[in-house]
Specification:
198 residues; Arc Repressor Mutant, subunit A; 75% helix; elongated; transcription regulation; DNA-binding transcription factor activity
């Protein structure tokens, strides 16, 4: 039998996220990820084949785990709208500086120019929208949003708000990101609020 893995793929992909935040996907190297993970570059080659293989695994993992912030938010908040606010803030938790966002935007270049990466990015976007729509539907059922709210259209607007708020925060940065995200989300939802204090 082979030796057991002492570092999980999950830990390696978390190290990959940190390295991408520092160097961007174009500038990151297997050596940088290996150093972040406490491994040798050869170990990464054995597991993922190449830098491209590692980045594709990272993209696939992001898509597979996109539901987790929404699940955590549901567990922590009884209000669907408060769960949505928390989930949206959690989605942006990996970004604390404009430079880290630049790393994510560098990944967007891969998503737009490489079909394999684009498939992962498109699925990630669809799953995110579905999770947003589910919480919005729960908010309508709970009376937090008006019954006339068109959940699918509003989910699209919330997703656009999230992405736009990230960019504007990176450029202007007058508020902490979590506060800027909540403020932008509340502005998008305000016309649809149902019960007072929702």
């Amino acid at each position: 039998m082979g030796r057991p893995r002492t570092t999980s793929d999950e830990a390696i992909l978390q190290a990959t996220a940190r390295a991408i935040g520092r160097y961007g996907p174009q500038g990151v190297t297997l050596a940088a990820v290996a150093q972040e993970a406490g491994l040798s570059p050869a170990t990464l080659v054995q597991r993922f084949g190449s830098k491209r293989g590692l980045l594709l695994a990272f993209a696939a993992h992001a898509t597979e785990t996109v539901r987790l912030p929404f699940q955590r938010a549901r567990e922590d908040h009884g209000s669907p709208l408060e769960a949505l606010r928390a989930a949206v803030v959690d989605l942006a938790a990996g970004v604390s500086t404009p430079e880290e966002l630049a790393g994510s935007l560098g990944f967007l270049q891969l998503d737009l120019t490489d079909a394999e990466f684009r498939r992962h990015a498109a699925e990630h976007a669809l799953r995110t929208r579905d999770e947003i729509a589910a919480l919005l539907a729960e908010a309508v059922a709970a009376g937090e949003l008006a019954e006339t709210a068109e959940v699918d259209r509003l989910a699209h607007a919330v997703q656009v708000t999230y992405n736009g708020a990230l960019i504007l925060w990176a450029l202007t940065g007058s508020l902490p990101l979590a506060a800027a995200m909540r403020d932008a989300l509340d502005q998008t939802l305000r016309p649809y609020l149902g019960a007072p204090g929702a």
